[in-house]
Amino acid sequence: MGLISPLVREIPPRLTMNVLVTGGCGFIGSNLVRYLRQQRPGWKVITLDKLTYAGNLENLQALERDSGHAFVKGDIGNRELVDLLLAAHEVDAVLHLAAESHVDRSILGPEAFTVTNVLGTQVLLEAARARKLKRFVMVSTDEVYGSLGPTGAFSEDSPLKPSSPYSASKTAADLLALSYTHTFGLDVVVTRCSNNYGPFQFPEKLIPLMIANALEDKPLPVYGDGANVRDWIHVEDHCASILLALEKGQAGHVYNFGGAAERKNIDIVKGILQLLGKPESLIRYVKDRPGHDRRYAMDFTKAQRELGFTPAHKFEQGLADTVRWYVANRAWWERVRSGAYRSYYEEQYRARLTQGAA
Ligand code: NAD
Ligand code: TDX
Fold first, then answer.
1. Domain annotation for the chain: domains and CATH numbers
2. Which of 21, 28, 30 to mutate to test the pocket of ligand 1 (most atoms within 8 A of CB)?
3. Which ligand 2 atom sits closest to the C-alpha of 104?
4. Which residues pair with 139 in a beta bridge?
5. Ligand 1 center from residue 93 Cα (angstroms)
6. 261 SS3 class
7. Is the pTM of this model over 0.70?
């Protein structure tokens, strides 16, 4: 027929492109913004972040004087702002990471998860559709699939069975994004990735929480019997996968990404203690998380085949590097734990805002 369906078109690497990263001050987002500036120096990266408790502008300190990066403080749910941003920066593509991301918080208070993860995503999709953006990458999660038994792995065709308010809200956003391709022809690619670890992760998640507690000789709270399994991917491999999805993914498609590193929580905790030379007597088995998913494992052969994805980091080395990073950056996580990091934005912008007002 000679005609290529617009839904299977590849976006070739571009010399110049303006990319909006939502949630760029969080853990994965800040790693991604730095990664994009390194890997695609000709691109302009715009970060939109509300700076919730999980957003830390300090995470992007390395880019303070980088003219290829712009930071905008704001809510993805603010349509007027999003419209303005997309137009002012002539945005070509959105990499959507902004979210409420912690399962335990979603159990304590689910509402913010629906507001940001579902309604916020809806606003971005509408704005992207109105401006006919070239691509919208929806960063979803393996948690949309629910829990596995002792064997098997999730493929892109596995049924969606989210367990927590967090994963349910991510599933809604993931499906909403796909519906925009099917219904409106918006070019959407969805990524579903397993548990990330690495530098700049907020110390409420398993690995940084255990490292920080161990360094302070505080108890290490292990949920249930500690035998829950997660598949761990280094954050840099996740960043690489998001760039692959942007440049090579097929519109309307879903791609699984994982680290090929299934580990029991308790083994990770013991590994951290060993790396730090701390005693296992710090471990405390505590009441289990309600609805706690037992096991995640990812089949990412589609991403290998179609995008050329392979996780580059080996888990044991990556964990040792991560432990070293938290030891070397104690001031960073101490400011996060004390709440002092929240004043960074004001300190950073006070002078400029005053000058702007003058
Ligand atoms: P994070 O909590 O560290 O960062 C989230 C960022 O989003 C923060 O900077 C926060 O300020 C910002 N944000 C929250 N609500 C916002 C709003 N309404 N408007 C603008 N910004 C807002 O999260 P993370 O671990 O970096 O996760 C990033 C994304 O990747 C999320 O969508 C998450 O679901 C997904 N994901 C995470 C993992 C993981 O293991 N951490 C795995 C798979 C997928
Ligand atoms: O104190 C703890 N003790 C403990 O045993 C914490 C914080 C966690 N855990 C367990 C629960 C999980 O089995 O460790 C495992 C990992 O927990 P989290 O770090 O909270 O991650 P998880 O619930 O698996 O979700 C993460 O991966 C998928 C991210 O937070 C999500 O944003 C992502 O979508």
1. 16-198+231-261+291-312 (3.40.50.720)
2. 28
3. 20
4. 191
5. 18
6. coil
7. yes
